[in-house]
């Protein structure tokens, strides 16, 4: 089966987790785009969505799905999002699309995180995909130096500005055997806004195509 078909199946399978009359947390990316298309078919059953990016907001609005502010919506039952890598413990690397900070916030505010991926995202150890880190622009060089001390190879994603007005460093060369510890350590560096490791708060359910892990 093609990668696109696996993404579509995963997006459609996640609809089974949507409860009537709920507000749904919505992630970002090409896999989530299939979920949003499927959500449009049941839009009369939900109250609306909280979005993790301008990109998803635009797609939700095109479908006539109401987009709510997280502060107004309160805690959510469900967050659906893709990932760049997923390990056997449902810990993730995210942020390939630069949406990691808002994704992390909406995931944290949600009771259940359903992650939708195709099989190419499954790995034994995280780190082959360069780890995205969102930084305050003036801190870019400082954060990069701290990462180099940890034997990472940071590359500035030149030209990318996040929805929050910040920049992204992609860190190459790490084999991340303890993602919870690395997530905490990186979060301590001054100037780091958020880290694309979703380890302390990983996924609760992973759907690889329509197969549940
Ligand atoms: O910032 C982007 C997000 O973390 C995405 O969820 C991630 O990059 C996966 O995107 P896709 O479904 O397009 O592979």
UniProtKB/TrEMBL annotation:
Gene3D superfamilies named in the record: 3.30.70.260, 3.40.50.1360
Keywords: Isomerase
Domain of life: Bacteria
Molecular functions per Gene Ontology: ribose-5-phosphate isomerase activity
GO terms for biological process, alphabetical: D-ribose metabolic process; pentose-phosphate shunt, non-oxidative branch
Known EC number: 5.3.1.6
Annotated metabolic or biological route of this protein: Carbohydrate degradation; pentose phosphate pathway; D-ribose 5-phosphate from D-ribulose 5-phosphate (non-oxidative stage): step 1/1
Cellular component, GO annotation: cytosol
Residues given in the record as substrate binding sites: 28-31, 81-84, 94-97, 121
Region forming the signal peptide: none
Catalytic activity as recorded in UniProt: aldehydo-D-ribose 5-phosphate = D-ribulose 5-phosphate
Active-site positions on this chain: 103
InterPro entries named among the record's database cross-references: NagB/RpiA_transferase-like (IPR037171), Ribose5P_isomerase_typA_subgr (IPR020672), Ribose5P_isomerase_type_A (IPR004788)
Record-stated family: Belongs to the ribose 5-phosphate isomerase family.
UniProt subunit comment: Homodimer.
Function description: Catalyzes the reversible conversion of ribose-5-phosphate to ribulose 5-phosphate.
HAMAP family on file: Rib_5P_isom_A (MF_00170)
Record's protein name: Ribose-5-phosphate isomerase A
Gene name of the encoded protein: rpiA
């Amino acid at each position: 089966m093609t990668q696109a078909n696996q993404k579509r199946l995963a997006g459609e399978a996640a609809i089974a987790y949507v409860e009537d009359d709920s507000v749904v947390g919505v992630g970002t990316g090409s896999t989530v785009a299939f979920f949003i298309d499927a959500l449009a078919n049941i839009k009369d059953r939900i109250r609306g969505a909280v979005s993790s990016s301008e990109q998803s907001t635009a797609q939700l609005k095109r479908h006539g799905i109401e987009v709510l502010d997280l502060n107004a919506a309160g805690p959510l039952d469900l967050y659906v999002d893709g990932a760049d890598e997923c390990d056997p413990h449902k810990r993730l690397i995210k942020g390939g699309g630069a949406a990691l900070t808002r994704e992390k916030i909406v995931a944290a505010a949600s009771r259940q995180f359903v992650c939708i991926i195709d099989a190419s995202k499954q790995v034994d150890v995280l780190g082959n995909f360069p780890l995205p880190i969102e930084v305050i622009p003036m801190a870019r060089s400082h954060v990069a130096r701290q990462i180099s001390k940890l034997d990472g190879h940071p590359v500035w994603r030149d030209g990318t500005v996040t929805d929050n007005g910040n920049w992204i460093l992609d860190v190459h060369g790490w084999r991340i055997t303890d993602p919870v510890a690395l997530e905490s350590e990186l979060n301590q560096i001054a100037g780091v806004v958020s880290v694309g490791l979703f380890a302390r708060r990983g996924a609760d359910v992973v759907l690889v195509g329509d197969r549940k892990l």
